[in-house]
Amino acid sequence: MKTAKLIFCFLLVALLSCAALAQDTSKRKLIEIYRIAPGKHVEFLKIIAQFDEANRVAGVPPRDLYVHSDGASWDFMLIQPAELTDEQSKAVSEASKKLNLPRGAKFFVQFRANVAEHSDTFAEGPITAKEYLSRLEEK
What we know:
Layout: H1 2-26, E1 28-36, H2 41-58, E2 64-67, E3 76-81, H3 86-98, H4 104-112, E4 115-124, H5 129-136
Antiparallel strand pairs: 1-3, 1-4, 2-3
């Protein structure tokens, strides 16, 4: 009986750990920071609006846009989920085709014509310091 309880507890802990990992994955974000080429701010925003429309058509939330107001040299920051499901990716691709948005090399050249510099990074959050500290205690 004790062995069965031990196995049950082990399986429960494993299941909860998997659930926690799945939850953490959903908190991963892609953060893009852009410094725009001189005079290209409106064009950049128009492209982002088009791709946000493709997301809307596909049932995916638009990117969170942040606009620089003071301080560092960046102009715009976009935050979005780091990963989409296969179904979401397919829906966004189909919506992009339907909206006749540039793809591949054409997208790269058109999009980058507006960008002087950018960086991409992945982050997890939002999360509190207490939540993150509790992970240090997990095994």
